[in-house]
């Protein structure tokens, strides 16, 4: 994406902000500026369902736009690393990846809607969600991994009978050119869902490498608290190229590793651009359809909130790793950034309820909320109950976020006998808020699919 394209994105974001500002009274800023009351008669400012839907669409557009903008910044940092692999450019590239995850994590609530991110057509075409954010991945398809079974976890493809014997970066014969066709052509190859070759987590693996913290043994009480530790020499193309510390390789292997990073970033930008364009307020076809969707769109908002809360976040992203005590099953297992994934996904649900999103530049986008709508339609107790359950979830998620930042990442917290209760508290809070979301669905008399369908494990 060139500067002219970025200018178009920025202009469109400004338009989105203006639309959000005029989408109806936000119900939160009455005369006294508190809780949707006007400060005189205690009644909520009037909010229509159409206002809530339009605000939700404007926030979706802003969050996806931030995801695209930070993905472009990530690509620039990766380009700098590849051109000049130094300790600083390596650190900058990792930080750019972490920064890019912040807005995207808050967009996950816009899934489960058959929208631009995760549609499924009858002809078999699907939205780019998997290509953007699929996990866990069988990293052995992409690059070298540890040869020790004690530490490689599930790094090999899920089914050995369908696995690829070499990796893309090392096999110059099978994959002479690393480009978009090569990388996307091997995505979920051999019908193996672990064969993930694109998206945030492929880039994460190439930046951090495996998190080689062996599962507990007789001489070990806890896992190592550090993330993956790929050496800078893995990107050295002028002599001294390695595939892991002390494993010298020809320069072209490090060149191919850098090429893979750049290609994966380009694909990520391309995929995010399609989603942003679909949500663009003036011309996006999905935006137009969604804001005109009436109760069907309101139902989709609530369904996305509930399904992310229960099956995807409480179930697949937390509970599965917890019950298996498996760091390979954590969402961002290479960088140990799973605590942020959890926090940001939960924040996205809260954003949808409060109709408020803080952009990466600090600007707040807000408008008519579900909280306001519940008050307007005569359900004040439920409005406050759901608001409280969402706040309880954020408080629980903040605990594991803080613990990770102070030396105890998610892969330690899921260990039996360490501090599992902190992880369990987040799961319980997410289940409780799903119960309240179901109450809101009934109170607003809209129809959704089952909110608990997205995990096979008992929570």
Mean pLDDT across every amino acid position: 87
Strand content: under 5%
User: Quick one: overall form?
Assistant: globular
Strand order of the largest sheet: 1-2
Kindly give the count of domains. 1
Low-confidence stretches: 1-43, 149-164, 216-220
The share of residues in helices is 40-55%
State the CATH superfamily name.
Answer: M75 peptidase, HXXE motif
Judged by helices, strands and strand pairing, the structural class is mainly alpha
Task: Please describe the biggest sheet, giving its number of strands, its sense, and whether it closes into a barrel.
Answer: 2 strands, antiparallel
CATH architecture call: Up-down Bundle
Distance between the termini: 43 Å
Radius of gyration, whole Å = 23 Å
CATH topology group: A middle domain of Talin 1
The number of helical elements comes to 15
| Record field, number of beta strands | 2
CATH class identity: Mainly Alpha
Order of helices and strands: HHHHHHHHHHHEEHHHH
């Amino acid at each position: 994406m060139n500067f002219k394209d970025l200018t178009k994105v920025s202009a469109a974001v400004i338009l989105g902000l203006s639309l959000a500002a005029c989408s109806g009274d936000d119900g939160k800023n009455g005369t006294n500026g508190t809780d949707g009351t006007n400060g005189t008669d205690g009644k909520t400012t009037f909010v229509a369902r159409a206002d809530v839907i339009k605000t939700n669409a404007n926030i979706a557009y802003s969050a996806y736009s931030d995801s695209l903008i930070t993905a472009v910044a990530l690509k620039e940092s990766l380009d700098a690393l590849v051109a000049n692999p130094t300790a600083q450019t390596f650190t900058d590239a990792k930080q750019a990846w972490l920064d890019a995850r912040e807005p995207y994590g808050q967009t996950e609530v816009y899934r489960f809607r058959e929208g631009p991110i995760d549609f499924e057509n009858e002809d078999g075409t699907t939205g780019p969600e998997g290509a953007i954010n699929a996990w866990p991945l069988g990293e052995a398809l992409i690059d070298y991994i540890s040869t020790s079974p004690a530490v490689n976890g599930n790094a090999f493809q899920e089914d050995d009978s369908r696995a690829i014997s070499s990796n893309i970066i090392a096999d110059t014969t099978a994959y002479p050119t690393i480009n978009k066709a090569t990388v996307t052509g091997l995505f979920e190859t051999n019908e193996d869902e672990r064969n993930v070759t694109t998206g945030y987590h492929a880039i994460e693996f190439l930046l951090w490498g495996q998190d080689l913290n062996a599962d507990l043994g007789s001489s070990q009480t806890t896992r190592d608290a550090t993330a993956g530790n790929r050496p800078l020499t893995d990107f050295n193309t002028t002599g001294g190229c390695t595939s892991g510390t002390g494993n010298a390789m020809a320069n072209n292997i490090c060149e191919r590793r850098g090429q893979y990073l750049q290609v994966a970033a380009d694909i990520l930008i391309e995929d995010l651009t399609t989603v942003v364009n679909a949500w663009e307020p003036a011309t996006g076809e999905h935006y137009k359809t969604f804001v005109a969707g009436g109760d069907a769109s309101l139902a989709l908002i609530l369904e996305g909130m509930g399904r992310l809360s229960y099956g995807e976040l409480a179930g697949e992203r937390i509970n599965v790793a917890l019950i298996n005590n498996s760091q390979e099953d954590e969402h961002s297992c290479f960088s140990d950034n799973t605590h942020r994934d959890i926090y940001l996904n939960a924040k996205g649900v809260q954003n949808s309820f409060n109709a408020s999103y803080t952009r990466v530049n600090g600007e707040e986008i807000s408008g008519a909320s579900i909280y306001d709508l519940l008050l307007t339609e005569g359900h004040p107790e439920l409005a406050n109950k759901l608001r409280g359950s969402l706040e309880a979830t954020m408080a629980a998620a903040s605990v594991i976020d803080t613990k990770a930042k102070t030396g105890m990442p998610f892969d330690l917290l899921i260990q039996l006998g360490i501090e599992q209760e902190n992880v369990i508290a987040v799961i319980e809070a997410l289940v409780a808020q799903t119960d309240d979301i179901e109450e809101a669905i009934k109170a607003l008399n809209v129809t959704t699919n089952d909110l608990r369908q997205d995990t096979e494990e008992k929570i």
